[in-house]
Amino acid sequence: MTVGDYESPRIVDHRRHSGWSKLAGSTRREPDQLTRTEYDALSASDRANYDLERSDWHAKLPFVHTSQAAGILAAMNDLLVTNRQSADDVKQAILLDGRAGQGKSAILKTFLYDRYRQYAGLHAAEPVRGSRRIDVVHVSMRSATNELGCATRIRDFFELPPRGRTEREITNQVIDAVYECGVKVFAIDELHFMGRSRIAGSRMSNYLKDLLNTTPCTFFFAGNNVRDSEVFTTPGGMDPAAEQFLSLMQVHEMRSFLADDESDEWVKTLMSLEQNLRLLDQQRGDLFWHCADIVWAMTAGRWRSLAFLINSACSKAIRTGTERLTPELIGSLKIDALAEPTARKYLPTLGTGAWTTRPKGA
Which InterPro entries does the annotation name (predicted)? Predict the structure, then answer.
């Protein structure tokens, strides 16, 4: 067992490539699965260490490759392979769109981390060049971001010196860096923060289209209800700038898990999550069978709500000594505000036969 030498991961600044690359290239140590007897035999300090390691593990469980996620990841990889045009040719991009909390950022991050590690392996034996190699760029927008704010965020990721004050000066600096550093994948998350008015949205459409057309990399975007935002639409409909931008975009709509999904995707997802839990008394089926309905009712099938709820449940199970997930324990937890309306509707009907997430005929 390796419970005595654990240290929590260091906090790094993911807004800059030096910090982001550490996150993308890091490997996580999977905690041992101990029995209660093995746990009780540990010293007090080793038990505290093991509990800390489990807490860090449950806070960020391994990504679950659902059929929806697998299809989107395949499309992202396919686009990267087919975007072989020269830098001055039109290239297609991908947008992950949908409501908040449905796993868009999780899929995007999984793809980017995988690509970073692949490129790092390919370049390991190459001689050091004059410019630092940056294969993957990943930036997230902030509230009410305009073109200048976007350019500044990208410049900060490259860790470039703050030369120039105008949007065009900074953008030219960024584009030069894209070529010099050999960027292949360029991702912008939280796209819904860009262009929060009709005029700003039209300008942002043109700005992003210009980035696509003047750089040699493949772009990936993610955001909440972006297709209905000012980036693409106006009160009078879609303007020419938005039409041009949308014509370059392959849109993948993210959806929540459905209670009556005939593919049993919900139960399969809970099964994958359960296999990664590190609770001393956890039994097979505790989560994906006995808790499937109450977890869906408390999360509305949203990925982010699910991740938060499972993390909170595991934390309470460890803290109270319960060491397993039960409907009673999960039902005692506070949920996020976005999931509350669904919980108020479905929790009172649990076990009445009105609905279930379990497979048909089970």
Answer: P-loop_NTPase, TniB
Per-residue CA distances from 131 to 135, 172, 180, 283 (Å): 12, 17, 6, 53
Assigned token pair, 304: 């982010």
- Both 82 and 186 in one domain: the answer is yes
Residue 288, sorted as left (phi over 0), alpha (psi -120 to 50) or beta, turns out to be alpha
Phi and psi at 40, nearest 5°, equal -65, -25
Number of helices (H), then strands (E), in the chain: 14, 5
Domain closes at, from 253, 279, 313: 253
CATH code of the domain covering residue 166: 3.40.50.300
Task: Answer yes or no: do 317 and 205 share one domain.
Answer: no
pTM, 2 dp: 0.91
DSSP 62: P
Helix (H) or strand (E) holding 154, with range, is helix 147-158
Q: What is the pLDDT of residues 114-149, one digit of tens each?
A: 999 999 988 766 655 656 899 999 999 987 678 888
In a domain, 11, yes or no: no
Q: Cα(326)–Cα(84) distance, rounded to whole angstroms?
A: 51
